[in-house]
Amino acid sequence: MDNNTVVTLEKLEQTSEEFWNISHQTGNFISMLIKATGAKNVLELGTSNGYSTLWIADALQSTEGHLTTIEFWEKRQCLARKTIEDCGLSDFVTFKIGQAYDIITQELQQECYDIVFIDANKQEYIKFFEAVHPILKKGGIILADNVLSHAAKVKPFIDAISNHIEYQSQVLDLPDGLLMAYKL
Q1: Hey, which residues does 88 pair with through a beta bridge?
Q2: Which of 6, 57, 95, 182 could disulfide-pair with 89, CB 3.0 to 4.6 Å?
Q3: Is the pLDDT of residue 14 over 90?
Q4: What share of the chain is helix, strand, coil (3-state, %, to 5)?
């Protein structure tokens, strides 16, 4: 990670409450996971101001991979685009604006992802899971943030993925809780 990216991450951490960003620990974990698995194709649901996007794009630079990130709010996506451009990582990111479920089911059904990171509308996690399951490769990983901090809202998702015969999952004790599910 170059110095410019480190400084940008530190600046974005100052606005984490306003933009509901993941924790530094969670970003670092996702970055290490991408590098360790050699992930090439990652999908992010919930770009916000680009904090997690920056962690992911930087990791994908080292694997020569690519990120597709979806955000509903145009203002947030504009901030994220600027963040990624300022860090010289635009070649590693495709931005999509709109409803994540619609974009997944209408535009991305021919894709095959190594990792899917879910950090959007908590009550829609179950819908997102149903949509991304067919486009996650065997051996792929679903990561979902806020599974402890928003436990009631994500319970249908947790129950579905925990009991799904094609997944092995674990909630990690990172800030706000991160679910990691491996597609068997």
Answers
A1: none
A2: 57
A3: no
A4: 50, 25, 25
- The residues, ordered by sequence, that sit 6+ positions from 108 with a Cβ below 8 Å of its Cβ are 43, 68, 135
Which amino acid is located at 9 in the chain? L
Residue 39 φ then ψ, to 5°: -55, 140
- C-alpha radius of gyration, the chain, whole number: 15
Q: What's the pLDDT tens digit per position in 109-162? A: 999 999 999 999 999 999 999 999 999 999 999 999 999 999 999 999 999 999
Q: Please state, in angstroms and rounded to a whole number, the distance separating the CA atoms of residues 16 and 140.
A: 28
Which amino acid is it at 168? Q
Q: Which two tokens stand for residue 163?
A: 């009991």
Please work out, in degrees rounded to the nearest 5, the angle formed at the alpha carbon of residue 102 by the alpha carbons of 97 and 106. 105
Q: What is the mean predicted confidence (pLDDT) over 18-26?
A: 86
**Mean pLDDT of all residues in 79-107:** 96
Distance CA 53, CA 45 (A): 10
- All structural domains of the chain: 3-183 (3.40.50.150)
Residue 33 φ then ψ, to 5°: -65, -45
- For residue 44, give the nearest of 31, 63, 25 by alpha carbon: 31
Token pair recorded at residue 76:
């947030």
